[in-house]
Amino acid sequence: MIRPFIKWAGGKTRVLPDLLPLLPKGDRLFEPFVGGASVFLNTDYPRYVLADINADLINTYRMAKGATQAFISTAKELFKNGNSKSEFYRNRDKFNAISDDEHMLKAALFLYLNRHCFNGICRYNASGFFNVPFGSYKKPYFPEAEIRLFAEKANDTTTCFIAADFRKVLAAKAINERSVIYCDPPYLPVSDTANFTQYHHRAFTVESHRALAKYLRIVRYETGAAVVISNSDTPATREIYQNYKFYEIGVSRSLGAAAVSRKKAGELIGVLDVGVSK
Question: What range does the record give for the signal peptide (predicted)?
């Protein structure tokens, strides 16, 4: 199993043994919610379109693909003497202050924050500023080998990275009957406090899920593309995505720092029925 170089809440590494057999063959995989990219790294599609609404994440992937050595060198410098509270907050302030046009430094700082912040959480306040506190790890791991593997695969498959809402991704003219769409949107909460879903300063709500379900039905009907989703096993999930055949799995999922806090949570993988209508 190839591991991502970005830590990501809700990452799919643990469920890959259940998910991969349900992803059909195709010419191109579209992921509107790429997150940590573990599905990309562990599948063998000829082409990929990987998207996320988080522009910082997509910029980091673009730098890893297009300027691999420069990205590694820039990020590695930040790791050298960066494992202290003072350096962390200095780098966090820099990340929030610099222009999005400074693609390389922004990407290197994003990786630094991802590996040094509390539990690898990616969270922004209402103003769009990254606000996760220092993680106090003994020695954060620098994922050089993982970056190189990611870059190699992204270049070999001419992967396209898009910073966009799912609506734009699902409107792509390249989607056809040989395409596979895999969606792993922020999870519907099992309870009011059970899940963390604020990966971007714009929250993904129940209404967002309803809109996604509608778009996926339309795309399936109009293009014939295969559609697979994953989410938490809740009554709301089963109601919103009612046209899917569900497969139940149990995963260990927690955003607590201690492994002892991790408990089995119900999760669903859904495959959209062939005969679905708009």
Answer: none
Domains and their CATH numbers in the chain: 13-53+164-272 (3.40.50.150), 63-145 (1.10.1020.10)
Task: Flag whether 56 is marked binding.
Answer: no
Distance of CA 124 to the CA centre of its chain: 15
Helix axes 68-80, 55-66, angle to 10 degrees: 120
pLDDT digits (tens, 9 = 90+) for 120-167: 999 999 999 999 999 999 999 999 999 999 999 999 999 999 999 999
Whether pTM exceeds 0.85: yes
- In DSSP terms, which residues pair with 232 in a beta bridge? 267
| Beta carbons within 8 Å of 204's beta carbon, 6+ residues apart | 185, 186, 197
- Torsion angle of the four alpha carbons 115, 116, 121, 123, in this order, in degrees rounded to the nearest 10: -120
Radius of gyration of the chain (CA): 18
In angstroms, the CA 192 to CA 214 distance is 25
DSSP element (H, E) containing 146: helix 144-156
Length of the chain equals 278
8 is in an annotated binding site: yes
Q: Are 171 and 122 in contact (CB under 8 A)?
A: no
CA distance 124 to 143: 24
Residue 12 marked as a ligand binder? yes
Q: Which two three-digit tokens encode residue 100?
A: 């999005």
As a whole number of angstroms, the distance between CA 269 and CA 278 comes to: 21
